Amino acid sequence: MDYKERIERAKAVLDSAEYLVIGGGAGISDAAGLHFSGKRFTDNFRPFIERYDFEDLYTSSFYSFKTEEERWAYWAKHISLNRYETPATELYLDLFKLAKRKNYFVITTNVDHQFYKAGFPAEKIFAVQGDYGFFQCAKGCHNKLYYNEDIVKEMIAQTADCKIPAELVPKCPVCDGLMEVNLRKDNYFVQDEAWYAASDCYTAFVQAIVDKRVVFLELGVGFNTPGIIRFPFEQMTYQNPNATLIRVNSHHPQGAKENIRQTISFSEDMAKMLAAL
Ligand SMILES: [Zn+2]
């Protein structure tokens, strides 16, 4: 099917759908302009690139820093750029306009807060993998998250020679150990009460629509963590003859064999495609 036909078909299923489940992966924020490489990276991380030979913002986030002072200088800038300096982007705003017409829920692996910034209410979002805006105990010794905007800004203000002063290194208020950004990367990821509440809301939402006219709108979800959005969306579509999966993915747009007829795939530009819907 050519692009125009797929857009028309996607519009038609969206118009007639009673429910909309949006799945947001890394590809949506990239399409929205939050690039992890190229000019956005080199403009903002020049001192770190010169010091550590960083190639992009993805690989640099796995770098093993020698000291906490260096680690937090880098992470403060990483968090600040992606969480505090970047406002809601056009693409997410367009998506919110589209979602508002429906009874919807969002599940996302993104940690950049863009859904919230664009106007999606917190009670309709399940951000599975965490949020740049919070610190947690690095060993997960207790179940609480700490909003980090002020401390991050202070770290940046006091960064010199790619280091923060020792007295700004965050410490766990319970065990006095190291702190971490609340991103799922090991078994110590903290899921607080709000996380469990969002998880329950999402589960209740998808359980209530198993036989309803539903569109699963999957945006930029690849194979990093396909078990969170991609495979469940395929499964839930397959189990419901009234469901359609709209999959937008520049690299892996194809649907699963079992429900190819219920899948509309796009590998085209996501921003343009959403604007057309
Ligand atoms: Zn602790």
Automatic annotation (TrEMBL):
Keyword field contains Transferase: yes
Q: Which UniProt keywords apply?
A: Glycosyltransferase, Metal-binding, NAD, Transferase, Zinc
PROSITE patterns xref list: SIRTUIN
The enzyme's main class, written as a single word, is: transferase
Its EC number is 2.3.1.286
Recorded hits in InterPro entries, A to Z, give: DHS-like_NAD/FAD-binding_dom, Sirtuin, Sirtuin_cat_small_dom_sf, Ssirtuin_cat_dom
Q: What are the recorded GO MF terms, alphabetically? A: glycosyltransferase activity
Q: Which positions does UniProt annotate for Zn(2+) binding?
A: 137, 141, 172, 175
Residues in Deacetylase sirtuin-type domain copies: 1-277
In Swiss-Prot or TrEMBL terms, this protein is called protein acetyllysine N-acetyltransferase
Give the organism, scientific name. Answer: Sporomusa silvacetica DSM 10669
